Amino acid sequence: MAAKLKKGDKVVVLAGKDKGRQGEIQQVFPKENKAVVEGVNVAIRHTKQSAQSQGGRIPKAMPIDLSNLALLDSNGKATRVGFRTEKGEKIRFAKTTGEAL
Fold first, then answer.
1. Comparing C-alpha atoms, which of 51, 95, 54, 55 is closest to residue 75?
2. Residue 99: predicted pLDDT
3. Closest among 100, 98, 31, 101 to 63, alpha carbons compared
4. CA 81, CA 78: separation in Å to the nearest integer?
5. 42, 43, 47, 53 alpha-carbon torsion, rounded to 10°
6. Which sign does the torsion angle of CA 6, 7, 12, 16 carry?
7. CA-CA distance, 31 to 38, in Å (whole number)?
8. φ, ψ for residue 43 (rounded to 5)?
9. Residues ≥6 apart with Cβ < 8 Å to 54
10. Helix (H, G, I), strand (E, B), or coil: what is residue 68?
């Protein structure tokens, strides 16, 4: 099945502690059905100092389930994603506005 959410998409969180927050998808894990969104689901990781990096408490964005994310349309509202064929190509489109993504 084609991916409804891809890297670089602007999304809004629908459920969980970060409900209502918006961000851009940085990484997608299709097998786990999860994605890493910038500034969402941030955990503090304690790292030891090494020659390459400074140690301390480093904030890190953790994966969030794709079912808790919705794509933002051009109006800035959450929308579902549909597929249709135009000129022989399969494209994604926003269900609320109908425009191609």
1. 95
2. 82
3. 31
4. 10
5. 0
6. positive
7. 20
8. -120, 155
9. none
10. helix
| DSSP result, 3-66 | -SS-TT-EEEE-SSTTTT-EEEEEEEETTTTEEEETTSSEEEEEE---SSS--EEEEEEPPEEG
Neighbours of 64 (CB within 10 A): 21
* Residue 41 structure tokens: 């689901």
| Residue where the block lists tokens 């990096």 | 53
- pLDDT tens-digit profile, the chain (101 residues): 467 889 999 999 999 999 999 999 999 999 999 999 999 999 999 999 999 988 899 999 999 999 999 999 888 888 988 899 988 898 889 888 888 88
